[in-house]
């Protein structure tokens, strides 16, 4: 198959050919399982509870919290919420976290990111009870992941593993190249996909700005995962013909979503996540899976 460049004005763009890998059916399957498990706890008189904290008045963040609360309610979770003003201090934030940490009726806790710039998100994350950490990003949980000890998994990486498994993409024994070694996506994903498990078990390579000739690696990947947050960084010439391409990295310009993977990669890839509705829905579903697992852990 010939490799075309999307920047060529003269050449006609070939029709997309890759199979799409939507996240919605994966998320639906995960959420159906969560709903069943919530109902099972409720039958025992236990209401699983996912608490949320929002700091400041950012419209987008408030919107995301509302969506998560609505979804929590529809799945059967209680969802107590604290909204702190944009002027809140680190101590105010820690006090809100402590309150939910100590509340035995709260099983999982989410701090909506980002928080105002004068606040230290990492310090807040460290304050969260690791067993209530729905994002799976507390250092103790990243340590559990590294050590292979069960615990809440980082949502986006876990969602990508689930997405590949759902769409029957064979990961085990294959070459996975991840562009980006960030703490939320590339780094934990590399640990996850290298684990000894049928849906992982991959030969994982991570590339970044320290590897200027990174296309040399991405071009040999059976599965290429973009986790850089640089719009359009992955072009068709970076993709092995027939490879699976997963777009994890995105940047927002206002409300406009700018993905790492240029849409023209669909002309070279064998399978690809859609521009919108790929990794996002599976990330949210994993958050609820972490929440129900946190509740179950308390009562087993
Ligand atoms: N879809 C979702 O639900 C979801 C959830 C979470 C995160 N994300 C997205 O995932 C992306 C990654 O987030 P993160 O926090 O893990 O990472 P991050 O801290 O933003 O780091 C980005 C990584 O990409 C690498 N990179 C950036 N520009 C590059 C370039 N020109 N060439 C090669 N490598 C480059 C960086 O290399 P260096 O380390 O060398 O600087 C770094 O390792 C972001 O776009 C984020 O929005 C999406």
UniProtKB/TrEMBL annotation:
Amino acids binding NADP(+): 180-182, 250
Keywords: Amino-acid biosynthesis, Histidine biosynthesis, Hydrolase, Methionine biosynthesis, Multifunctional enzyme, NADP, One-carbon metabolism, Oxidoreductase, Purine biosynthesis
Pfam families documented for this protein: THF_DHG_CYH (PF00763), THF_DHG_CYH_C (PF02882)
Catalysed conversion reaction: (6R)-5,10-methylene-5,6,7,8-tetrahydrofolate + NADP(+) = (6R)-5,10-methenyltetrahydrofolate + NADPH; (6R)-5,10-methenyltetrahydrofolate + H2O = (6R)-10-formyltetrahydrofolate + H(+)
Protein's UniProt keywords contain Secreted: no
Pathway recorded for this protein: One-carbon metabolism; tetrahydrofolate interconversion
Residue spans of biased composition, Low complexity class: 1-18
Coiled coil: none
All residue ranges annotated as the Tetrahydrofolate dehydrogenase/cyclohydrolase NAD(P)-binding domain in the record: 154-298
Domain of life: Bacteria
EC number: 1.5.1.5, 3.5.4.9
Assembly: Homodimer.
Stated role: Catalyzes the oxidation of 5,10-methylenetetrahydrofolate to 5,10-methenyltetrahydrofolate and then the hydrolysis of 5,10-methenyltetrahydrofolate to 10-formyltetrahydrofolate.
Similarity comment: family membership: Belongs to the tetrahydrofolate dehydrogenase/cyclohydrolase family.
Name of the protein: Bifunctional protein FolD
Organism: Dactylosporangium salmoneum
């Amino acid at each position: 198959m010939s490799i075309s460049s999307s920047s060529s004005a003269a050449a006609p763009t070939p029709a997309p050919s890759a199979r799409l890998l939507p996240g919605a059916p994966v998320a639906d399957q995960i959420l159906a399982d969560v709903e069943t498990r919530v109902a099972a706890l409720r039958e025992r008189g236990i209401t699983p509870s996912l608490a949320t904290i929002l700091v400041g008045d950012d419209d987008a963040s408030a919107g995301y919290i509302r969506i998560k609360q609505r979804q929590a309610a529809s799945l059967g979770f209680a969802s107590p919420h604290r909204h702190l003003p944009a002027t809140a201090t680190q101590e105010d934030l820690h006090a809100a976290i402590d309150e939910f940490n100590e509340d035995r009726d709260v099983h999982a806790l989410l701090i909506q990111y980002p928080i105002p710039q004068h606040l230290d998100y990492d310090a807040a994350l460290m304050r969260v009870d690791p067993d209530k950490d729905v994002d799976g990003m507390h250092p103790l949980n990243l340590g559990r992941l590294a050590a292979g000890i069960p615990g809440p998994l980082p949502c986006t990486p876990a969602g990508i593993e689930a997405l590949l498994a759902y769409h029957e993409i064979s990961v085990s024994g294959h070459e996975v190249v991840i562009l980006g070694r960030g703490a939320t996506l590339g780094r934990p994903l590399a640990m996850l996909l290298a684990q000894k498990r049928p849906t992982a078990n991959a030969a994982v390579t991570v590339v970044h700005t320290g590897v200027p000739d990174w296309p040399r690696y991405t071009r040999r990947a059976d599965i290429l995962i973009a986790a850089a947050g640089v719009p359009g960084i992955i072009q068709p010439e970076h993709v092995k013909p027939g490879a699976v391409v997963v777009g994890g990295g995105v940047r927002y310009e206002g409300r406009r979503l700018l993905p790492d993977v240029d849409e023209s990669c669909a002309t070279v890839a064998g399978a690809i996540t859609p521009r919108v509705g790929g990794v996002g829905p599976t990330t949210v579903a994993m958050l609820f899976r972490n929440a129900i697992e946190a509740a179950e852990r308390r009562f087993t």
